[in-house]
Amino acid sequence: MELFGKTLGRGDKTSFRFGVASFPDGSPISLEVKIIVGVNEGPTVTLLGVQHGDEYNGMEVVNRLMGSLKPGDLTGTVIGIPVSNPLAFNTGMRVTPPSVGYENLNLNRVWPGNPKGLLMERIAASIWENAIVGTDYVIDLHEGGRAFMARYIHARGTQETDRLVGDEIRRLCRFFGQGIPILGGVRTRSHMMGSLSIQAGLRGIPCIGPELGGGSRIWPEFVETGVQGVRNIMIGLDMIQGEPVGSEMEQITAPESSWPKTDMGGVMYNRCELGDIVEEGELLGVLKDTTGSLLEEVKAPYRSVILDTRYIPTVYPGDWTFHCGKIV
Fold first, then answer.
1. Which one has a higher pLDDT value, 1 or 139?
2. If we measure between CA atoms, which residue out of 183, 194, 193 comes closest to residue 156?
3. DSSP class of residue 48?
4. Is the dihedral of CA 228, 232, 234, 240 positive or negative?
5. Which of 24, 86, 111, 179 shows the smallest number of beta carbons within 10 Å?
6. Which of 46, 41, 44 is nearest to 31 (CA)?
7. How far apart are CA 272 and CA 85, in angstroms?
8. What residues have CB less than 8 Å from 56, skipping those under 6 apart?
9. Closest to 246 (Cα-Cα) out of 257, 233, 237
10. Which residues have a Cβ under 8 Å from the Cβ of 27 and sit 6 or more positions away?
11. Torsion sign (Cα): 127, 97, 106, 89
12. Is residue 101 pLDDT above 70, yes or no?
């Protein structure tokens, strides 16, 4: 089989740098790519980490999983890209910095990319053609970034993606298991149409986005959850042998979600935790000024499971506070 311009055979396990662009001085902009081709024919799964440069746990999930898999035990093929956006990663920013990309583009808003477009669009196009086209499943690993902590699976799409791959996406989420809540529904806003999950889904490729961790650091417990979740999916797809972990745990599916916002700037004191079930009107956090005086109370808009919480406590007026997945 041909992958990233290389001819690979059954039982191969390899890693290499793949050039996707260049800096003004001619030095390459490249991605680390890891590929394992199982001894038995089966589905292809692509794993992506670090679409956003301040999200590090996905990188560790990809590296740890790819390091543990053996071709002799694998049915199918696994492609892993630990860092999908090296420009944002190297500057510790969510998106490509203006000093490099000028347009400050978000990689997860420009799929499937454009090989003749702006720098970020070209990187997306290269990943798309080599790692997304021809794959059977995509697991796009995310988290809360610098300001938030997250623990859920993003499985939201459009009516068309739900028609094409909705059943498979729900199956992948169930395989992932471990009681991780699911954000589903078909109410994606127009600005999300360039996300990988939407564009892959429109081409019949199921893509889920586990959101695990945040605070711009690596959390061992979230990495372990991610590794086990991917292994559970591979077990469910008959790619590896084993017993799934956490398949008996209840998973809440929220068909919609919202983020209560503050009217004032201040310091947020959390009163809820990831995975909490809260009732409509229940206190989620209190906003205080720098003297400790109460400014606002943030309350749940409806009965919810908490999907994201604040990690950085300082907020501006209109900032996101707590991500509430509606329970129906």
1. 139
2. 183
3. E
4. positive
5. 24
6. 46
7. 32
8. 50, 143, 213, 216, 217, 218
9. 233
10. none
11. positive
12. no
Quick one: pLDDT at residue 293? 98
Phi first, then psi, for residue 183 (nearest 5°) are -100, 105
Question: Which residues share a beta bridge with 301?
Answer: none
Q: In the chain, what are the domains?
A: 2-236 (3.40.630.10), 256-326 (2.40.50.100)
What's the Cα-to-Cα distance from 259 to each of 278, 300, 308, 311, 322, rounded to whole Å? 14, 9, 9, 15, 6
Using DSSP, state whether 179 is helix, strand or coil.
coil
* Token pair of 35 as six digits: 């590929």
Mean pLDDT of 15-30: 96
Burial label for 9, CB within 10 Å (0-12, 13-18, 19+), is exposed
Query: Is 82 in contact with 50 (CB distance < 8 Å)?
Result: yes
Residue position matching structure tokens 């990309």: 101
Q: What pLDDT sits at residue 142?
A: 98
CA angle (296, 299, 301) in 5-degree steps: 135
Residue 187 has pLDDT above 90, yes or no: no
pTM for the model? 0.96
pLDDT band at 300 (very low <50, low <70, confident <90, very high): very high
The one-letter amino acid at 125: A
3-state DSSP assignment of residue 183: strand
DSSP 291: T
Measured between alpha carbons, how far is 82 from 58 in angstroms, rounded to an integer? 7
Report the pLDDT value the prediction gives residue 32, as an integer from 0 to 100: 98
CA distances from 224 to 15, 185, 197, 221, 257 (A): 22, 27, 23, 5, 26
> Given this model, what pLDDT does residue 100 score?
79
